[in-house]
């Protein structure tokens, strides 16, 4: 081929298409950390253990059974009326347990309302107990001490449910990682090496928090961060202090 023909052939050839410099799918950088989305179907990541709701329901049931130990003089109506009503509330708690993110807000409000109603009943019983002590009306020492002890334990159990239900939006929200701001700062969250990576508080941690707050009238190793957490812990401390005052007043009046 003549030199002129080769030049014409090169001139007529179409230009090479631009090269695609984007990386292949296999070469794309991997996204790591908590911001990585789910791998399949955008399904929410769950932690079945942290989403378990039965510990709180069992705790409410134990609180109802402890209510049977209250003296009849401080019960509202017949002795069986309040435990029966609270049992119905417990069934409502179980039925309203949220299992999907779309159910969290509505059913969580129902659960909080039911726990609040049970708590309100026990506050009324505590006030009745204090009134009987002041009036010395038909309440012997043994009944008073048993009633005060039962109320103290019931308060510990119910406030554990309160703490567990309100912290960062509740157990289901924590499991689906759709969390509100942290309400309670546990030591494992701030001390490196104090807990395995990804540690999250479970119901037993909130029960221990409630027990120490009721026994010492203030926070221990766990710090309340939000106003609602501080209000709850303050109310529990006041209820515990009032119960202890009733017992001490009886001891002073009868043993002093």
UniProtKB/TrEMBL annotation:
Record keyword Calcium present: no
Keyword set, alphabetical order: Membrane, Transmembrane, Transmembrane helix
Keyword Transmembrane helix on entry: yes
Record-annotated membrane-spanning stretches: 51-70, 76-98, 110-130, 142-164, 231-252
Origin: domain of life: Bacteria
SUPFAM superfamilies listed in its UniProt record: Voltage-gated potassium channels (SSF81324)
Gene3D superfamilies assigned to the protein according to its UniProt record, in alphabetical order: 1.10.287.70
Ranges for region Disordered: 1-49
Protein name stated in the entry: DUF1345 domain-containing protein
Species of the source: Pseudonocardia bannensis
């Amino acid at each position: 081929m003549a030199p002129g023909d080769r030049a014409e052939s090169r001139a007529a050839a179409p230009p090479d298409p631009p090269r695609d410099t984007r990386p292949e799918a296999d070469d794309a950088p991997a996204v790591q950390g908590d911001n990585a989305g789910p791998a399949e179907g955008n399904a929410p990541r769950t932690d079945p253990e942290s989403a378990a709701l039965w510990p709180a329901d069992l705790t409410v049931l134990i609180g109802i059974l402890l209510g049977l130990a209250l003296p009849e003089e401080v019960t509202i109506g017949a002795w069986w009326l309040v435990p029966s009503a609270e049992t119905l509330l417990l069934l409502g708690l179980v039925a309203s347990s949220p299992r999907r993110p779309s159910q969290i807000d509505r059913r969580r409000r129902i659960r909080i309302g039911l726990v609040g109603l049970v708590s309100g009943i026990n506050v009324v019983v505590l006030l009745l107990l204090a009134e009987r002590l002041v009036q010395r009306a038909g309440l012997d020492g043994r009944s008073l001490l048993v009633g005060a002890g039962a109320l103290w334990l019931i308060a510990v159990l119910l406030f554990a449910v309160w703490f567990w239900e309100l912290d960062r939006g509740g157990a289901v929200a924590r499991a689906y990682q759709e969390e509100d701001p942290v309400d309670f700062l546990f030591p494992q969250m701030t001390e490196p090496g104090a807990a395995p990576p990804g540690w999250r508080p479970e119901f037993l941690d909130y029960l221990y928090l409630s027990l120490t707050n009721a026994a010492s009238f203030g926070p221990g190793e766990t710090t309340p961060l939000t106003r609602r957490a501080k209000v709850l812990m303050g109310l529990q401390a006041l209820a515990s202090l009032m119960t202890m005052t009733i017992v001490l007043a009886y001891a002073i009046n009868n043993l002093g």
